[in-house]
Amino acid sequence: MIEEQVAQPAQEAQAAQAAPAQAQEKEKESVELNISDLQSLKAIVDIASQRGAFKASEMMAVGQTYNRLSKFLEEVAKGQ
């Protein structure tokens, strides 16, 4: 009887751990990112920088990322 009482919480703990793993697998399957999303992201960064959302110390990283994103989108547009 004591063994059953000890085993039950262990089984419940295993079931609780399995549930998030299954949820993550479903999320991975449904995650999608397309060119339209990247174009929106580019516009968001542009607007945010115009409104002063970034600190001066962050501007270099933001600018470099923005430039890489712009070049990527240009290459995709050329390929279509």
What does this protein look like?
With about 80 residues, the chain is mainly α. It folds into 2 domains: about 1-30; about 30-80. The chain is about 85% helix and about 0% strand. It is built from 3 helices and no strands. Helix 2 packs antiparallel against helix 3 (about 55-80). The longest helix is centred in the first third of the chain and has 29 residues, at about 1-30.
List its salient traits:
mainly alpha, 80 residues
Oligomeric form:
single chain
Low-confidence regions:
none
Largest β sheet strand count, sense and barrel closure = none
Order of helices and strands: HHH
For the secondary structure, the number of strands is 0
Number of helices: 3
Strand content: under 5%
Structural class: mainly alpha
How many domains would you count in the coordinates? 2
How much helical structure, as a percent, in the residues?
over 70%
| Rounded mean pLDDT score | 83
